[in-house]
Structure prediction request, 359 residues.
Amino acid sequence: MTRTLFTPIRLRDLEIRNRLWVPPMCQYSALGLDGRATSWHLMHYGALARGGAGAIIVEATGVVPEGRISPTDLGLWDDAQRDALVPIVELAHAQGAAIGIQLAHAGRKASTHPEWGTDGSGSLRADEGGWQTVGPSAIPFPGLGAPVALDADGIDQVVEAFAAAARRAVEAGMDLVEIHAAHGYLLHEFLSPLSNQRTDEYGGSLENRARLLLRVVDAARAVIPAGMPLLVRLSATEWVDGGFDLEETGQMGRWLGEHGVDLLDISTGGNITPAPIPVGPGYQTPAATSVRAASGLPVGAVGMIDEPFQAEQILATGLADVVLVGRALLRDANLPLHAARALRVDDPYIPAQYRRAHR
Ligand SMILES: Cc1cc2nc3c(=O)[nH]c(=O)nc-3n(C[C@H](O)[C@H](O)[C@H](O)COP(=O)(O)O)c2cc1C
Prediction:
């Protein structure tokens, strides 16, 4: 019997071996502070590929230096950063996984202490290597420094930077590109009326708040091959009144489809704190299902989908088209192999080197 989790999925020309994917997860391990991937990234993404994931989306990668969350984030604004990704792409492909990258600009949530490796939290001071952040409006995220509102030239430069990074992702051999428009980072900040209080053509109506993201999508689509999938991660609700909500996300999804996006990776939150987020198993899946219906696009569900049967049910009952499993895969990169066994799917991913262990 075909189990949905292990049914391949095709997006444009890309065939992906299963529907259990790795969502982008910052490693804060560009320890040279130069945005370049290190041996940690090679080991980490290689292990996830070997563990049987269908597609791996490399962590949020800054399209400009000031778009990094922290100084140890990956970047893709120069060719050396591109070249450092090539061995990771080759290793993932050798293990049968598809690999893409999440292109990001952290906006008003940039210039923070990484999650580990320093004693501090919140914004970095200038003498700690911090920098001036930017946003749609000069409204700070609670606890962080105030951003400077981007002017028209600054907005154009953001669009160009996403396009240049997308071109480098293609050159590095990536199979897909994901634009990060979730979690309170720059593109989400523009979408939300709570962080975007502009009075120009980028603020006010949903059409205006959506303008930057659609420009970024058009610019990325223009430089990636026609056969390559383009994904967008959205926060489908901010869990507070007056924010970018499910209804607006549905409309956004329709526009993104018209602009050549192939799958929406549906998360929530991140732009407003505190927010009453009902964290629990599968808590974001209803949002994915709703956006799927409203947009007509395939969607990925993410958020505490930790168990094989839970993931299988989401797919088998049509709640989403793929599932992305984050922290559970950090605990055990071989989770997809265990899931295949639990679902009684023949394990197709045993490398020849390990076959003696499986006789
Ligand atoms: C260590 C870590 C780093 C993360 N970094 C990113 C990121 O770079 N981009 C992003 O969109 N989400 C990021 N997330 C969120 C995950 O992609 C995912 O949406 C979230 O962890 C919920 O899924 P889970 O319950 O399966 O872990 C991160 C999560 C973790 C645990």
In short: The mean pLDDT is 96.
